[in-house]
Design brief:
By secondary structure, the protein is mostly helical. It is built from 30 helices and 2 strands. A two-stranded antiparallel ribbon has the order 1-2. Strand 1 and strand 2 form a beta hairpin. Helix 1 runs parallel beside helix 4 (about 65-75), helix 6 packs antiparallel against helix 7 and helix 13 packs across helix 14 (about 250-265). The chain is elongated and about 105 Å long. The two termini are about 45 Å apart. About 35% of the residues are buried.
Amino acid sequence: MAQNTEVPELNFDYWLDKAIKWGQATTLESQKDVCFHLPQLQEFLHQIYETLKHMDSVAAIQQFPLIGQLLGRLCWNPFVIGDDASQKSLMWCLCCLYSSEPQSPVELKANSWIRSLLCHLLSSSKWESNEAETSTFISTLGYTSADYYCQLLKNMVALLVTELRGNQCNGLSIQGRVSASHVNAVSLFCRPLVTLPDLSLLLETLLLYHGGLPEEVLSSEFLQAVNDAFLKKKISLPESAVYSLWLRHLPSLEKATLHLLDQLFSRQLHSMEEVACVIKDSLLPQAASHPAIFRTVNEIFKNALLETDGTPEVMTIIQVFTQLFLQAHQNENKQHKFPLKTYFAYHHQPLVTALLRCPYELPTTHWSQHLKHISDMLKVLVEDTDISSLTELFEIWFLVARFGEWLDIAAEQLLKAAVESDALLWLLAFYYCPHNENQQRTQTMVEAQAVYNQLMMLFSCTVLSVKDLEAAVYSIMDVKQCCDQKLIRHLLTNFLLFSSGGHMIAQEFIHHITETTDTSKEVFSLLIRTAYRFKRNGEENQRTAKLLNELLQKVALMV
């Protein structure tokens, strides 16, 4: 990336030679020479910065092995750093050389050296005397140099925070107090130092700062560095500062969402509570109370769903995220709360309202009727309305999929309660086979109804074998449509949990279907969702709850 802006080697050598000759500009001749060459030096430093900002620290040092010597010498020349533009350019260059992820003792030592230079540049604006006089002053106070620079940094942070907060009154910008370029320069200076505890208050103040301008005043490098440090848990920030960061820097929000998905995919999570804990800890469900953040996270989830072909893990993540988002929205201050329709503005609002209804706000005896209401509305949208594209169909399906708890309850109600099966089976058929045309969905319904009828005939059997169950659903086990098979496995899993005969063969049958069809992740997702629902609703049948825990332990070993 840096080839197009490479600093000529001859020019680099020229300025290094100048810096050596100038020293600390103690003679009148060297002072005059610095002043004479200062405009060209400023341009050269700007060239270096433009080159370095496209490189990582290792590549920069490899291309310019003597850059540390050059910058170090210039930082200690009072006539160079006495000029604000030159001092700012030196700070920017040093920031580029700082390793955010040091991998060796050399990089750690270089980081320490850079920090000391940055502290020196800060102190130079306050102390214009030479180092000997500064050291004498520090000694007189009874401090070591390390103590002095640490306290100096704290004081500078306090001054900057006061300055930035003084530029705003009740959230409104007071023009003319602090320039946008100054705020940008402060953010650039902070970039390599974001993990310092003493800077936490300044980071928060910068993230919450708004200068009244339409364009972003904070540097993107700073915002990216803060986001990376936050995601790696190297710093802690107030929630308001994190939300502001993601609102003002889209790449950081996207990275935070992808980081969450990576976390969830890379860890073996054994319960919905664990999934919920990781998601909640990311702060994304809470931040999604802002519609702009919600829409961005929503789009990333859609893409993840499409790229993974709707794997059970992704579906579970999206459903848990939606539940946590709704909880966070409910806890929002009513005065500042956006209405829920804002987040689902482009959908059929009666359907949205029905899906948003928390199952546990309704008596369980009303669940089947509510699900029939959802199914009827959805059927009109999908079959009786002219859907112009697959994208529109996907949007309807994705809305339903977000509220997967209702779908799990539909499958449960089919096996546990005396219900009219048509509406609930249609709802499950649409969920598992959304792309089916009406004729294909009708065929799916015929097959699902046949399996359901067989299961209900066996439901009251107290003695049942795996062969009995296989024989009862044999005609369906040859179904080639993957989505149809998922629907059948959903019904079968609930049959094993809620029927007396199913209890007897549950472990053997689950082992059989997961081993022969490689569906352990799918079945495991069904089981952890059921376990989570049991805990929330208080499953009364202790035998069923015990069986569920045993199945979870068994299938977890196969995932």
